[in-house]
Design brief:
Uncharacterised_Rv0898c; single chain; mainly alpha; 3 helices; 76 residues
């Protein structure tokens, strides 16, 4: 997955998140929102990794998604 693919995936997840937040919301929606937030955190983290590797002269394709438990613990 390259940076453009990641950005498109992020956009898709954000659009779904907005649709769910704009709806009445059910218990299933709350669970899906939590999944979306975790997936977005992973995507953003992977994109940052890829950009950092490229900026440092490395291969961005060496970046790998980190577990949700790791990226959820980051401070903003």
């Amino acid at each position: 997955m390259d940076n453009q693919d990641l950005l498109e995936r992020i956009q898709s997840l954000v659009e779904e998140e907005h649709r769910l937040r704009d709806s009445e919301g059910s218990e299933n929606d709350s669970a899906r929102l939590a999944q979306l937030e975790a997936q977005l955190d992973q995507c953003w983290d992977l994109l940052r990794q890829r950009r950092a590797k490229k900026d440092a002269g490395g291969n961005p394709d060496d970046a790998e998604p980190r577990p949700v438990s790791e990226v959820e613990g980051y401070r903003q």
